[in-house]
Amino acid sequence: xxxxLRSSTxxxxxxxxxxLALAATWxxxxxxxxxxxxxxxxVGAVLASVxxxxxxxxxxxxxxxxxxxxxxxxVIEVGLIVALMASGGSETDTLARDTVFAAxxxxxxxxxxxxxxxxxxxxxxxxxxxxxxxxAFATVVTLATLCLVLPTFTTSRSEATFSPGQLTFAAVASxxxxxxxVVVQTVxxxxxxLPENAVHEDDHADPPSDREAL
Length: 214
Hints:
214 residues; mainly alpha; 8 helices
C-alpha cells in the first residue's frame, strides 16, 4: 500500500505545479524553454487525470469503469479543443471536427489494431466478445457517419456544414443513440461487455480501496 501511495504521489503534485505554471504564463508570450516546461507540466497533468480516472474505473469495475474512462478522456479532449479554439481565432473553426475524426481513426484503427497484434503475439489467438465489440463499433460508425460524413451531402448550406435545424436533429439523435448504447452496456446486455474468459488472480492488481478511489 505504501509503495502504491509513493508511486502515485506525482499524480497529486504535477497538476498543482501545472496550474501554477499556467497561471504564471497566462496572457504572456514566454520563451521557448519556459513554453516547453509549461507544456510538459500540462501533459503531466493530463496523464495524472487519466491515472485518477483509471483508479476509479478499477474500483467500480466493468462495464461502468469503461464509462468512467470514456467520460474522463472526453472531458480532457473537449477542454483542450475549447482552449485552442478560444485562442486560435477563425483559423481553428474546423479544429473540433478534425480532432474528433482523428480520434475516431486512431481508436478504430491504431488502438484496436495494436491490441489485436499484441494479443496475438502473446497468446497466438486474439479473443474478444463479438457481441460487445459489434455493438460498440456500430455506435461509433453511426455517430461518425451522422456527424462527420452527412454534412458533406447536405444542400442547405454552401459549405459542408449543417443548418441550425439539421444540427439540432444531429445533436438529439447522437444523444439518444449514445444513451441507448449506455443502457445496453450497463443494464440490458451487460454481459456483452465483460471479459469473455475468466481471468486469473494474478492477471490484474487488486481493486483499490474506497479511500484510494476517493
